Amino acid sequence: MKIKYTFLIYSLLLLGSLFVSSNTFSQLKLKECTITNLYDAFSKDTSLIKYWGFSCIVKYQGKIILFDAGSNADIFKKNTSKLGIDLTKVDMVIISHPHYDHLNGIDYLLQVNPKVKIYFPYDIFWGAPAPFDATGQEPAIEDSLPHYMQYFDGGNTKFTVNQSGRFWNANIEFVKTSKEIFPGLTLIPTSAKYMGYFSCYPGTSLVQQQFEQKDGDCKKTNLPELSLSIKTKKGQVLIVGCSHSGVENIVKETKNITNDKIELVYGGFHLLPFNRAQTVQIINMLKSDLQVHRVAPTHCTGHLGFKILKDTFGNDYLYAGLGETISY
Q1: Would you list the domain boundaries of the chain?
Q2: Which residue intervals of the chain are DSSP H helices?
Q3: Going by C-beta distance under 8 Å and a sequence separation of 6 or more, which residues neighbour residue 188?
Q4: DSSP 143
Q5: Using CA atoms, how far apart are residues 219 and 216, in angstroms rounded to an integer?
Q6: Which stretches within 57-191 are classed as H helix?
Q7: 213 bridge partner residues
């Protein structure tokens, strides 16, 4: 009986220690929920290289996610090394859009982590399967040509080109619709209303606009863009790359897809092209209409945007310059 009693006490103690360990592990996982800015043009840390572009690394539930990769692979390499980031441990990569200042560090990443999963927006100019129609005018003319002059020996002239682009052999998936890539991690696709060479944004000069106008209208490329929404107990933490789609539109789309409130918006708000009145309108929409709780602006938000966001959000404005880590 004494042996059984001793065994029972030992078993209870063991279960108790496992319970404590489990709680400790949960706390550790919670503490791992962080975002670190790896690449930007402003910083408190003078040991890091400030440059135009954006990249951050996210830790969530044991996963490490790289979001964008800056404009210069050498600088990306130096900053990640200085910050002690082991890129071989990255589980997945998200590229918000294929502009140079968010993309070029991938060249270095693929040297050290060549098989890592990469999510790209569905952009045919960067490798997504491209539908094409080579039928041309007067389709019947094909029959008058010898087979060796006919596309595909007279076969179908409507087809899809499966491309092999710059990142040949990389493990890339092109994302067209919202997608949960890990429990709690959802990709939010949007499309930019204003693009071209950035001169189509409201507030740009008529001279700039004329550079891109055709028949009085700015060219609209509908640039595809990906954002990352992270589920937390307080709501969604939304990471944006450059918000060419409009940060307010990305927030609206995220709320529609996740059916959840927005706890934090982190990244480039792309308010640089907007004047004070336009910037105030967008920021008030974020806070009052869309009920964004906190903001952590980076990259292309602009000095005016930083100032008005800080004045509007007060203590709910988080500084997120190069080298800074925030918990969520």
Answers
A1: 31-128+163-320
A2: 2-31, 73-82, 100-103, 106-112, 206-212, 247-258, 276-284, 303-313
A3: 178, 226, 227, 228, 229, 238, 250, 253, 254, 257
A4: G
A5: 9
A6: 73-82, 100-103, 106-112
A7: 218
pLDDT in tens, 121-165: 999 888 899 999 999 999 999 999 999 999 999 999 999 999 887
pLDDT (tens digit per residue) in 153-201: 999 999 999 988 789 999 999 999 999 999 999 999 999 876 544 556 6
Average pLDDT over residues 50-57: 98
C-alpha to C-alpha distance for 84 and 64, rounded to whole angstroms: 14
Rounded CA separation 266/318 (Å): 9
Q: What are phi and psi of 5, to 5 degrees?
A: -65, -45
Phi/psi class of residue 273: alpha, beta or left (left: φ > 0; alpha: ψ in -120 to 50)? alpha
Cα gap 96→223, rounded to integer Å: 11
15-24, 63-72, 135-144: which has the minimum mean pLDDT?
15-24
**Residue 245 pLDDT > 60:** yes
Which residues have a Cβ under 8 Å from the Cβ of 293 and sit 6 or more positions away? 234, 235, 261, 262, 263, 264, 316
Q: Alpha-carbon distance 258 to 227, whole Å?
A: 13
Amino acid at 285: M
Order the strands of the 262-268 sheet from edge to edge. 179-182, 185-191, 224-232, 235-240, 262-268, 294-298
| Domain 31-128+163-320 class, CATH top level | alpha beta
Pairing of strands 92-94, 63-67: parallel
pLDDT tier at 214, thresholds 50, 70, 90: very low
What tokens does 208 get? 């700039």
* Residue closest to 228 by CA, chosen among 41, 22, 66: 66
